[in-house]
Amino acid sequence: MAQLQRIQPCLWFDRNGEEAARFYTSVFPHSSIGPITHYSDEGREFHHMPSGHALTVSFQLDGMDFLALNGGPSFRFNEAISLVVHCDTQQEIDHYWSRLGEGGDPAAQQCGWLKDRFSLSWQIVPEPWMRLLVSGEQTGIDRGMRAMFAMKKLNLAELLAAYEGR
C-alpha cells in the first residue's frame, strides 16, 4: 500500500466535488481519481444528501493528493486560499491558464490569478520569474512587478524584458 501524504488538502464543494476532481485530473499530467465514498441514508437529517451521492473523492494532481468533499452549500471558496501552479515555460502557463480558466470568472483574473468554474482560485506562475523575485536585483524586480500588475495571464517574455529594462 502506498504511503499517505502527511498533509492532504480537503476542498469543500456543494455537490460537484466528483465533477471537479474529474476536471482537474484531466488538466494535469500524472493525475488520477482514487477511492470515492458515498452518502447513505444514515444521518440524512444532517447532510441532506441523496443516498449514493459521492461524499468524498480522493484524487491526485501531478502526484499530489487531494480530497474533494461534497459538504453542501454551507461554505464557499474565496481568495484567502489558492493553489499555485509553477510553470517553466510560456507554453505551460498558456495551457494551465486556458484549461483551468474554462468557464471560470474572467473578472477574477489578475497578476496570474484566476478563478475556475468551481470558484477555486489558482495562481499560474512562471518559475523563472519567481527565481528572480527571490534572488534578482531590486531595480529589475520593481520594473517586472510594474509590468506584472498590468497583466492578467502572466507573460514570461514580457516580465523578463521588463526586469532587464527592455
SSE topology:
Elements: E1 10-13, H1 17-27, E2 32-38, H2 44-47, E3 54-61, E4 64-70, E5 82-87, H3 90-101, E6 105-110, E7 113-115, E8 121-126, H4 127-135, H5 138-149, H6 156-164
Parallel strand pairs: 1-4, 5-8
Antiparallel strand pairs: 2-3, 3-4, 6-7, 7-8
Helix pairs in contact: 5-6
Walk me through the structure.
With 166 residues, the protein is an alpha/beta fold. The chain is 34% helix and 28% strand. It has six helices and eight strands. The strands form two sheets. A four-stranded mixed β-sheet has the order 1-4-3-2. It has a four-stranded mixed β-sheet with strand order 5-8-7-6. Strand 6 and strand 7 form a beta hairpin. Helix 5 crosses helix 6. It is elongated. The N and C termini lie far apart (53 Å).
Features:
6 helices, four-stranded mixed beta sheet, elongated, alpha/beta, 166 residues
Q: Main β-sheet: number of strands, strand sense, barrel status?
A: 4 strands, mixed
The overall average pLDDT, rounded, is: 95
Strand order of the largest sheet: 1-4-3-2
Q: What structural class should be given to the helix and strand makeup? A: alpha/beta
Quaternary structure: single chain
* Through-space gap between termini: 53 Å
Beta fraction: 25-35%
In helices, the fraction of residues equals: 25-40%
Tell me the series of helices and strands, N- to C-terminal.
EHEHEEEHEEEHHH
